[in-house]
Amino acid sequence: MKKMLLAAGVLTAMLASMMWALDEKQVSTKMKSAGDHMGGLRKAMGAKDMAAVSTHAKGIADAMGGGVDAFWKGMGMEKAAEWQVASHKAANELAAAASANNADGVRSAMGALGGTCKQCHEAHREKLADGTYKIKK
């Protein structure tokens, strides 16, 4: 009986993870959203508008969450998953620092966020002739 319950639990967990797994199109949409927020974030930082910095950082955190790391792991791209988790953390730290009007914290978190985005883009982002991007494995 215990073995049957354990097997049922494992099967349920596997099915649940498959149902919530993101596909490449969904991840691309999330990355586009993060990029749009990054543009707004840069403008807000230039204007020293901490409320807008916080809003855009939260938008990046939202885009970087919700199973994106599982997508990268499912693709066998462990380093991309690590960078995504670090980006998500940095975006949350950036939002918190901006909300607290902590300029040093904003600069530090922005550096961490930009660094992880850059590393992943250099390793796993390929620009196509039409100006769009695809995931490079």
| The named CATH superfamily | Cytochrome c/b562
Radius of gyration: 18 Å
N-to-C CA distance: 44 Å
Quick one: CATH class?
Mainly Alpha
Could you say what the CATH topology is called? Answer: Four Helix Bundle (Hemerythrin (Met), subunit A)
- The portion of residues forming beta strands comes to under 5%
Question: Mean pLDDT, rounded to whole units?
Answer: 88
Overall geometry comes to globular
Protein described:
With 137 residues, this protein is mainly α. It has a single domain (23-135), classed as Four Helix Bundle (Hemerythrin (Met), subunit A) (Up-down Bundle). The chain is 78% helix and 4% strand. The protein contains six helices and two strands; from the N terminus they run H-H-H-H-H-H-E-E. The protein has helices spanning 2-19, 24-46, 50-64, 68-74, 78-99, 103-124, and strands spanning 125-127, 133-135. A two-stranded antiparallel sheet has the order 1-2. A hairpin with a 5-residue loop joins strand 1 (125-127) and strand 2 (133-135). Helix 2 packs antiparallel against helix 3 (50-64) and helix 5 runs antiparallel to helix 6. Residues 13-19 have low confidence and may be disordered.
